[in-house]
Each structure stands twice: as C-alpha cells, then as structure tokens.
Amino acid sequence: MTLRLNRVTYGAAGETPPLLIVHGLFGSARNWGVIAKRLSDSRPVIAVDMRNHGESPWADDHGYADLAADLAQVIEEAGGRADVLGHSMGGKAAMILALSRPETVRKLVVADIAPVAYAHSQTPLITAMRSLPLEGLTSRGEADKRLAEQVDDAGTRAFLLQSLDLKSPGGPRWRLNLDVLQHQMDRITGWPDDVAGRFDGPALFLAGGTSDYVRPEARGRIKALFPAAVMAKIPGAGHWLHADRPREFEAAIRAFFDA
What are the tens digits of pLDDT across the range 9-35? Predict the structure, then answer.
C-alpha cells in the first residue's frame, strides 16, 4: 500500500524539475534541511520523511518496492518528473524507483550505497534506542548522556537523537517505528532478488572516501543496472558524506545536475 509521505519543500517552481531528497535509515527530512535550502536557490527541493520515519505514516511493510512507490507518488504530485538524490537506505529506494519507474526520474544521485545486499545490521542501534529511559526526559543533553551508555560515538548519538520527540503530548517518543524497522532489517540491508529493468539516464554514484559501503566489486552490478553511471568519491568523507563534507558534497551534485 502506497503511503503519502510527509514532505518539506524549499524554493519556488521554475523551468528545472524539482529535486527530491531521500534520507537514510533512522533519518528524516530535517537532516537535509541545510543542504536542501542551499540547493533551492534555482529550483524547488522536496525533502521527505520515509515511511516509518519522522512525521510520515507507519506501515508493516518496509520493502524497497514499497518505498519506491511512496516516492513515485511524491513525484507525480510534483509534476511527474524529478531529479532524485538518495542516501543509504534512501539511495536504494531511489535506485528501485529509477529501475521500476524510469519515466519519473531525470537524473539520479546515489550517495554511498550500492545495489547489493550488506551483511551488517543496524539492529544494535535499535536496541540502544529501545533501552533509552524516556520517562521524565526533558532535554536532549540528558538524553545524550543516557544514550552514551549504549552508543559510544557522539556523532551517531546526535544523529539518532534528531528523531527523538521530547515535546510529544504523550511524553517523549521516537519518531521511528522501531518494531517494524527491526523486523524488516534484513530487507533494509538487503537488495531485492527480483529486481528487473535498467535506468539509462544520467546517474552519479557518490561515495565517501573513507567509507567501505561502495566496494570495487560492486561496480559491475552498478554498470549493469545503470549503464550511464559515473562513480566518484569525496576525500575525507565517511558514510554520512553530506554531513562530513557538506560543501564538497554540494559542489559535486550541483556540477552533476547542472551538466
């Protein structure tokens, strides 16, 4: 079942198709606010909350066909065609969209992910979020202290805590459907076995220079599905390349979209 995603739109309509930004696992549209605003100087930019994230509806299914269908609806409501930028989980959803509905995508940017299954799991982070005592929690600083007992990395904690709603009428809550994300983790880290189609349009696979998410052995698979793909790296950036090197990331995607 297709869901109507929550979205934030920047900029005004013009001759250039809108840019749709699709976040990764545990993220939201708000993670991309700064970059979205900067990119909206010459075109509309739409950042979405994916299903089971942010302010978008929750659902029991979190497969990539479902995520791609949600994105297709956003594009249809925005005029029928868009440039699409997806990071990590959002990158996989964007790839499935381009393969299954190529008429909706003009240009595609996939940030630090490949069309392959990964062996790692993000379930430990779900366990950490579940273990965070929410009762009586009033500040993000206190939440960070509590979460530090389970998550050592300060950057990861800061990222996760952007999805913690401290002002919910019923008390603090996560803006994440942790039950479904945990249950569907193998589908999220995997890649659908029944993928068909090919996207012949322009595609940029942009990886972090210090990240190991896009390995050399994935290049053949990328080229088979996206024959026009160009691959590039941002030196000094990890998996969250848009946060690690925002200016370099912005410059790379501007050059690609403007070409």
Answer: 999 877 889 999 999 999 999 999 999
Rounded Cα distance between 57 and 180, Å, is: 12
- Average pLDDT, whole number, for the chain? 96
Q: How many CA atoms lie within 13 A of 140 on its CB side?
A: 12
| Rounded Cα gap, residues 230 and 214, in angstroms | 13
Helix (H, G, I), strand (E, B) or coil at 58: coil
What's the rounded mean pLDDT across residues 63-89?
98
Instruction: State residue 1's pLDDT score.
Output: 87
Does the pLDDT of residue 250 top 90, yes or no? yes
62 catalytic residue (yes or no): no
Chain centroid to CA 57: 16
Which candidate in 28, 40, 56, 88 is catalytic? 88
* Whole-structure pTM value: 0.96
In the chain the domains, ranked by start, together with CATH numbers, are 7-118+190-258 (3.40.50.1820), 123-176 (no CATH)
Residue 239 a catalytic site member: yes
| Catalytic option among 23, 53, 62, 239 | 239
* 153 in active site: no
**Distance from C-alpha of 118 to C-alpha of 55, rounded to nearest angstrom:** 27
Q: Which of 179, 186, 200, 212 is catalytic?
A: 179
Tell me the C-alpha to C-alpha distance, in Å, between residue 106 and each of 17, 144, 153, 199: 8, 41, 37, 10
